[in-house]
Amino acid sequence: MTSLSVVVPAYNEGEGLREFQRRVAAVFDTLDLDCSVLYVDDGSRDDTWSVMESLRAADGRVATLKLSRNFGKELALTAGLDHVDADAVVVIDADLQDPPELIADFVAKWREGYDVVYGTRASRAGETAFKKFTSAAFYRVMERMTDLPIPRDTGDFRLMSRRAIDALKQLRERQRFMKGLFTWVGFPQASIVYDRDPRFAGDSKWNYWRLWNFALEGITSFSSFPLRLATYVGVVAALVAFVFGIVVFAKALIFGDPVRGYPSLMVVVLFLGGVQLMALGVIGEYLGRTYVESKQRPLYLIDRHHPPRSGDR
Ligand code: UDP
Ligand code: MG
């Protein structure tokens, strides 16, 4: 029988997991598939793990995976994807912002032959104008700097076929910008539009500092344009300085201008100093990432893994 696995990364989600399981189980009952769900505990500090274990005791379709500490959502997701072998895999948040009921629509599209079916948010209700603006700006910058057509307003909520998962599993980079990796893999992709719900319980783990780092991650993982940008800024600054130099020289020769250089000197020195520091910073971003990759550490470490009890798979 064709199988479907749902991978759920969770960090301090103990409060909402039972409701999540109830809704996912209801969806499973309507599907003509061998379904299972894998909860990944990303080093939670609340009762998430014990809730997961009790869900597993109550339902044979539940598997659990516990990481040795908090590795972040991208790596929790990666760990989950490495531990499922179903024909189709759905990735979904534990906080019920992505409605599990949509999985049935994903499966229908997958049966039409699409390898990747992702949910696109129709509305961003309850988000501030500033958040909407920064997110729109991010997608625009991303589109211009990389060749990847990363779909807008699309999170990690998606279904992937076995061959798409197998392709994704070959990308073992440590700095994981999942949206970019999902897109890089390619294969026929379809989108389903949905409305994102507010969180069921608990708090979002995101803030603007994390979002900023996320954006840096995305750009430096998929584009080397900023490295070239430093060159262009340098060339332009040098040209301007050259023309300015000729003007100053000519003025001194023709009009015998006494050199009153202090203000302009300061401006030029500060400007060039700023540009150089910026360029160094950009190089540092890439160098730091190369350093992290070169250490070849494992992406994550497993504390415990309990497969589904239903032994028919
Ligand atoms: N998450 C995780 N590890 C982390 C942070 C978050 O596994 O370090 C999980 C979290 O439990 C949730 C999902 O990632 O299932 C999305 O997190 P969150 O709701 O905080 O993000 P948002 O929806 O605000 O983008
Ligand atoms: Mg959320």
Automatic annotation (TrEMBL):
Entry's Gene Ontology cellular component terms: plasma membrane
Domain Glycosyltransferase 2-like: 5-167
Keyword check for Cytoplasm: no
CDD domains: DPM1_like_bac
Transmembrane intervals: 229-254, 266-287
Keyword terms: Cell membrane, Glycosyltransferase, Membrane, Transferase, Transmembrane, Transmembrane helix
Lineage: superkingdom: Bacteria
Topological relation to the membrane, as annotated: Multi-pass membrane protein
One MF annotation (Gene Ontology) recorded for this entry: glycosyltransferase activity
Pfam family, one: Glycos_transf_2
Compartments where located: Cell membrane
Recorded family membership: Belongs to the glycosyltransferase 2 family. GtrB subfamily.
Official protein name in the record: Glycosyltransferase family 2 protein
Species the sequence originates in: Tahibacter soli
Source organism phylogeny: Bacteria, Pseudomonadati, Pseudomonadota, Gammaproteobacteria, Lysobacterales
